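User: Quick sanity check before I run a bigger batch. Here is a single chain. Can you write out its predicted 3D structure?
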Amino acid sequence: MHIAIAGNIGSGKTTLTSLLSKHYNWEAQYEEVDDNPYLSDFYKDMQRWSFNLQIFFLNSRFKQVQEIRKSGKTIIQDRTIYEDAYIFAPNLHAMGLMTSKDFDNYISLFDSMTQFLPAPDLLIYLRASVPTLVAQIQNRGREYENSIRLDYLKRLNERYEAWIDKYKGGKLLVIEVDQINFIDRKEDLGGIVEKVDSLIHGLF
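Assistant: Done. Predicted structure follows.
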């Protein structure tokens, strides 16, 4: 079974992936942040490195989903391949940070790849306001994220909402991050676990 967690930068995807992995004894697959050769350069010069970064993520997540489906295990994944294509790449293109030629090439490659990939059995979307995202980004203290602009996060949030509103890939759980603290309050994590339980029982 494939569980995937989606959400904006700083919404808590990696933390919730880790917590649910531990609770259910699921294998976790994380986004390649520390090993990404383009991320730091991208935040310094988005226009120069946007296409390279998106291709790296696309390839990385395509391989992840292939491995998940071959494994026969229940695996929880930090961020989905769909977010790259429906959120980040279109946003970069709209902001003039990716050329139309590169964007068209990217979408064509995404369309070809996703013909071979089924959607996650359960998608968990972490919805968070910009102030919450900023607070959590500051708390984790990644130096290369210091230059992320508020308008960039706001644009991403708008695209996330548009994508989730039309999502038809499979079962969906939306978690309102502003209203809970699943890191420090066990009862909040327990509430998420109850909702996940109710959804996955119909997947086995």
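The chain has eight helices and five strands.

User: Great, the batch can go ahead then.
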